[in-house]
Amino acid sequence: MIFFTMLSVDEIINTQIMKKIVILVIALTGISVFSNAQTVNRDLQSLYGIAEATWCGHCGRNGIPTTKSLENSVGNKAVFMSLHQNSSSDLHSADAAILTQALNHAGGQPSWSLNGVSEGYYSTSLVQDLTDKINTYYDQNNALVNANGSFSVTNSDIQYNIDVEFFDNGNNQDYYLQLYVMENDITAYQANYDPNIPNGNIQHHHILRKAMLPNGAYGNLIATAATATQGYTKNFTATFPLDPTWDKNNIYLAAVIWQYDGTNYTYYNANDDIKFNSAPTAVKDVSKNDVVLYPNPIKAGEQLKIDVAQIQSVSLYNMQGIKIGLDVLQNNTVEIPATLASGLYFIKGEAAGKTFTKKISVQ
Predict the structure, then answer these.
(1) With left for phi above 0 and alpha for psi between -120 and 50, is residue 216 left, alpha or beta?
(2) Which pLDDT does position 66 carry in this prediction?
(3) pLDDT at position 290, please?
(4) Is the distance from CB of 116 to CB of 83 less than 8 angstroms?
(5) Where are the alpha helices (DSSP H) in the chain?
(6) What's the pLDDT score for residue 278?
(7) Mean pLDDT by groups of 10 residues along the chain of 363 residues
(8) CA–CA distance, 70 with 88 (Å, rounded to integer)
């Protein structure tokens, strides 16, 4: 049996006023509405930082090759940042210098950090040491908090919509979020002490351009120790000016989450797999957790299984957004080209009328 309740005119007016107040509170506080929330995964990833400079010969000889080798080794288990802290570097960023200090880098360049801990200077065992630490820290389904979302780029600004979600109770600490504008494929000079590779222009990757939120390296407060509880969410939506010297086609965003115990900030999690929306569209996205690629990492020439229902199309793109030919086999399987160079790529597709984008590592 269904019961109907009749409201008076005054009650109806008061109800409408309350709705407007609730909407206003949500807009001012940034708390996301669950029906519009984006999928946030539970990956726990490391943050790799390398302090370098374009005039630094050791950066060309040891720094850049170390980053490339490590990235090929661990794939998407870490977020990579190239920090040009020195003001005389062609790719200098004041925010990179601030983050370098927060990550406790040793002085000079190239120097390394992982998860806010200094890893010192170059050694022949550095790649293996960092690989082991990144593999130990990584947990695909056990982060207590993470951030994800989407962004778009116009000729004048970057528009972002980022959701933060707690999957478990916090560690009796406050939590902060900083968002960074990153850029790939910047053609710029690089000194190099390797006699086989002359000084000159190269492609620079993972360059930190700008922090998007205030408060230096640590950004905005997500939750206090009291509010950092399972199920708590917060949304960050804003427009950020686009520097005309940045290539808008090669920009991506990285989210970094910190813990604060009242005295010290410590690194907790990071994510740079934030969806780029080239243009607004009515097509919905498949939840990231609904699409599984395996094996990942994968070797060139191997077959990649895409575990998602009702797949309709699939394409392979490099980090520059260039589409690469892909042989689509039966049973949601594709063959990675045997001649494909090692590195990170994107698998983009459509399944059940919805789109998905996933990152893969080719070794």
Answers:
(1) left
(2) 97
(3) 66
(4) no
(5) 9-29, 57-58, 64-74, 94-102, 126-137
(6) 62
(7) 39 42 40 52 96 97 96 94 95 96 94 97 97 96 95 90 95 97 94 92 95 95 96 93 90 97 97 78 47 86 84 77 72 87 83 77 87
(8) 27
User: What are the respective helix, strand and coil percentages of the chain, to the nearest 5?
Assistant: 20, 40, 40
Cβ atoms 272, 251 nearer than 8 A:
no
Instruction: Say how far apart CA 277 and CA 252 lie, in whole Å.
Output: 11
Interatomic CA distance for residues 68 and 64, integer angstroms: 6
Q: Name the one residue in this structure whose structure tokens are 């968002």.
A: 179
| Cα angle: 340, vertex 341, 345; to 5 degrees | 80
- Identify which of 255, 94, 283 has the alpha carbon closest to the alpha carbon of residue 180: 255
Sheet holding 343-351, edge to edge: 323-324, 311-318, 343-351, 354-362
Which two tokens mark 191? 């000194």
* Coil, helix or strand at residue 140: coil
- Give yes or no for a contact between 146 and 43, defined as CB atoms under 8 angstroms apart: yes
pLDDT value for 18: 44
Pairing of strands 46-51, 78-83: parallel
- Tell me which DSSP letter residue 61 carries: I
What is Dmax (Cα atoms) for the chain? 85
Token pair in block for residue 269: 């999690």
Nearest alpha carbon to residue 252 among 58, 80, 42: 80
Distance CA 279, CA 332 (A): 27
**Alpha-carbon span 58 to 224, nearest angstrom:** 42
* C-alpha count within 13 angstroms, C-beta hemisphere, residue 190: 24
Reduced 3-state DSSP string for 12-58? HHHHHHHHHHHHHHHHHHCCCCHHHCCCCCCCECEEEEEECCCCCHH
Say what the pTM is: 0.69
CA distance 254 to 146: 12
Q: What is the pLDDT of residue 329?
A: 67
Residue whose token pair is 């082991």: 132
Sequence-ordered list of residues with C-beta below 8 angstroms from that of 11, at least 6 positions apart, any chain:
none
Residue 266 in tokens: 């410590």
